[in-house]
Amino acid sequence: MKTACPGLEQSLLHRRAGQTIAIVGPTGAGKTTIINLLPRFYDVTHGSVKIDGVDVRDVTADSLRKQIGIVLQDTFLFSASVMDNLRFGRPDATDEEVYAAAKLANADSFIERLPEKYETVLGERGSGLSQGQRQLLSIARAALADPRVLILDEATSSVDTRTERLIQKAFDALLKSRTSFVIAHRLSTIRNADMILVLQTGQIIERGKHDELLEKKGLYYDLYMSQFKKQEEVAAAV
User: Measured by CB atoms within 10 angstroms of the end CB, which terminus of the chain is less buried, N or C?
Assistant: First the structure.
């Protein structure tokens, strides 16, 4: 995958298939801009976005988006059964495939406790479910679609500790053997990434692995000391 983005003209990004790229930076740095360019929610004004050497503007949006799975913090669910919601990206999936995706996402246990299990009709936007449960369904939906490219906003704010652990395990399973772009909020994801991109005001100003970037003592070092180091301290205390 190769991208050249507006505001990132001097910052070429070229990644191999199967790698996980963590994207970090302060609010407004351009993290969401990068992930929105991949499925063509809007197009670049300079340069190009290419997958396997093919400009994404040379294929239909429908065929492109079938290759990309997106799990965002704000999950959209329909007023339909759990089964239909999970099948949204792959209507021809068998029941067994749906069950397997739900188990991979650690969503199966709470689905089985719903009044009609997989046939339970959800309220609009998943009303009646917790934020964590909605996110687990979103992960299961992405797993069922089995995309080549995965985009994650892995934020787990406002969920209880047990649900956060389930979400983390689901993300870990989903990331295996896929090209993934992660707006990273957890240090464990950042440490395990093949490449970390550090953004500021629309520019990729640093790139590398965790230890390499700490040694540079640049913006990533500042972010680590102000945000991610606290996660390590909390984990150590637990």
Answer: C
